[in-house]
Amino acid sequence: MTGKIMPRKRAKIKTEKPKKEPRAKKPKKSRRKKIRPLSYLELSYFCGQMALILKSGISSIEGVEMMEDDFSTGADRQIVEIIVETVHLTGQLSVGLAATEAFPDYMIHMVAIGEETGNLDEVMEALEEHYSREEQLRQSIQSAVTYPLIMSGMIIAVIIILLVRVMPIFNQVFRQLGTEMTGFAAGLMAASNFISTYALLFVILLAVIIIFAFFCVKTDAGKALSRRVTRRFKATRELNDRIASCRFADGMSLILRSGLSPDRGFELVAELNEDKDFGKKLDKCRAKMLEGTSLSDALHETSIFTGVYSRLTSIGNKTGSLDQVMGQIATLYQDEIDTKISNRLAVLEPALIVVLSVVVGVILLSVMFPLLGIMATL
Fold first, then answer.
1. Distance (Å, rounded) from C-alpha 242 to C-alpha 305?
2. Is the separation of the CB atoms in 356 and 158 below 8 Å?
3. Are residues 178 and 269 in the same domain?
4. What is the pLDDT of residues 254-283, one digit of tens each?
5. Has residue 26 got a pLDDT over 60?
6. Are 35 and 102 in contact (CB under 8 A)?
């Protein structure tokens, strides 16, 4: 008996789709707080500590680790930690300084030269003197700018108070006596009314002036603008030239003490110059040196150094002590700059006081004389 064999139904096998595994979250990168650049005083302190450590026969790695123990918290601690970590990986202090982004390129380059030539202790000592002199220059410039601004602000404030607060009182007295202010006093009263009416405008103008002042002091573009403006005046132009010459001599002294040749040192210092007019002199000096002129003669012919400074450079070039002579020239320039600024401030202080006294006296007398005349007729 034959029977039909019924085909078996295939059982449907449920295939479960593999569940997607959740993606592992990428670890967030540790964001390091941006470290502010160190000031000249902080750079001088750091270089002085490193110079003392290296002269004691301690290696740069051990020296930085010793400095790490001195800082418990704060940005200084973070800087030293980065230096220690990088120096352990690379074995070079210059790379560690660059990793922090808190040290200037000039210092990093000089430290690299010191490591290559094997006289890092002398380089650090020279850098300490260099940044100490830069701090003195900064303080001299700051005092030359800050004091006149404060005195000028005081004069303007006193004049505004007299016009806005005192003049209306006198005007009320005149009206009570049945008369009005005339002449110069009337003009001052009109100025008082104008200032009171547009007080908000003057506040905005003052805010703009303050913002512009911060722009000129804190930004590179503002500093360049300030230099262009000060170059137009003879007194400030001469002071800027002396400051540029002081920095040039100081930089040459530092580089020559590091073991580099005068020609190579000149190139490095010229790259750091920020004064365009002084940069033109450096370009002319470099051209003369390429023609075969000695460094001392080229500096004299381009008026970078004149008089005693030029003769000192010539003597240092002949005796082989150009690094010491450049340091001496930088010190002499620093003393000359401080003396000039002190003398000008000594003249400016009584001059501003005289201006303040004259302005206040004119405002009060312009009101008092008419008032006394009216009182005499009563």
1. 10
2. yes
3. yes
4. 888 777 778 887 887 887 777 778 888 888
5. no
6. yes
Residue pair 47/110 in contact by the 8 Å Cβ criterion: no
Domain holding 310, by residue range, is 129-378
Domain-embedded: residue 316: yes
Q: Is the domain of 171 the same as that of 298? A: yes
Let me know whether 145 and 283 are in one domain: yes
CA distance 343 to 338: 9
Q: What is the tens place of the pLDDT at every residue in 185-206? A: 888 888 888 888 888 888 898 8
| 244 residue type, one letter | A
- The residue type found at 137 is L
How large is the C-alpha radius of gyration of the chain?
A: 35
Question: Which residue is it, tokens 């003052």?
Answer: 206
Q: Residue 18, SS3?
A: coil
Rounded to the nearest integer, the mean pLDDT of the chain is 79
Between the alpha carbon of residue 153 and those of residues 150, 264, 269, the distances in Å are 5, 47, 38
Which tokens belong to 223? 């500093």
Q: Does residue 266 share a domain with residue 197?
A: yes
Q: What is the CATH number of the domain that holds 266?
A: 1.20.81.30
pLDDT 10s digits, 304-330: 888 888 888 888 888 888 888 888 888
Look at the block and give the residue holding tokens 């040459």: 252
Question: Which residue type is seen at 364?
Answer: L
Buried b (16+ CB within 10 A) or exposed e, 106-140: bbbbbbbbbbeeebbbbbbbbbbbbbbbbbbbeeb
In the chain, count H helices and then E strands.
16, 0
**What per-residue confidence (pLDDT) applies to 13?**
41
22 assigned to some structural domain:
no
* Concatenated DSSP letters of 228-254: HHHTTSHHHHHHHHHHHHHHHHHHHHH
pTM of the model as a whole: 0.67
